[in-house]
Recover the amino acids of this structure.
């Protein structure tokens, strides 16, 4: 999973601005959050290629204002050949995605009925705490699911040959293609 450098910058701007729901996050705390994200994810950098693609998108797609941020994220995806977008708001990106393709380029946090498909941070923490009380095999299975994002069938199909402890990698056999 990749994060755009612009997403990190936007997080710093939004998190440190007072909100109707509460006070601004202190800059030191926001910077610590960003550093955690940098350690956990690969970062897709901006550059001349991203900016060129952004200008092309803005010249060919309707919209402006806040939609420029959406276009910049799509430009980053195009430049870095990122083919999947995980978003809370897939409606904002539909105009950039060729919907006639056989696969889904967007992955939404919500299902068609508006229900959440993924765990919140608190639910993730509670899941891992419960897993830590389970027998070793169940604990390993739950942590594999929680930290890799694999499907249950993929975790169940794991064999010792697919786990490289020295390299810190797990190779999953993926049967379902999106």
């Amino acid at each position: 999973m990749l994060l755009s450098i612009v997403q990190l910058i936007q997080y710093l701007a939004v998190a440190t601005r007072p909100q109707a729901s509460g006070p601004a996050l202190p800059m030191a705390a926001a910077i610590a959050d960003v550093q955690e994200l940098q350690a956990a994810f690969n970062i897709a950098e901006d550059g001349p290629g991203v900016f060129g693609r952004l200008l092309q998108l803005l010249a060919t797609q309707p919209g402006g204002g806040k939609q420029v941020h959406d276009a910049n994220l799509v430009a980053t995806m195009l430049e870095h050949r990122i083919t999947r977008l995980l978003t809370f708001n897939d409606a904002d990106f539909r105009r950039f995605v060729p919907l006639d393709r056989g696969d889904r380029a967007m992955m939404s946090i919500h299902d068609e009925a508006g229900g959440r498909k993924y765990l919140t941070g608190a639910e993730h923490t509670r899941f891992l705490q419960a897993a830590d009380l389970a027998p070793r095999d169940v604990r390993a299975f739950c942590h594999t699911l929680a930290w890799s994002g694999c499907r249950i069938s993929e975790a169940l199909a794991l064999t010792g040959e697919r786990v490289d402890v020295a390299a810190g990698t797990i190779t999953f056999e993926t049967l379902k293609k999106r």
Q: What stands out?
A: Helices lie at 5-15, 27-40, 48-60, 67-79, 121-131, 136-148, 152-156. Residues 52 and 75 are 8 Å apart (CA to CA).
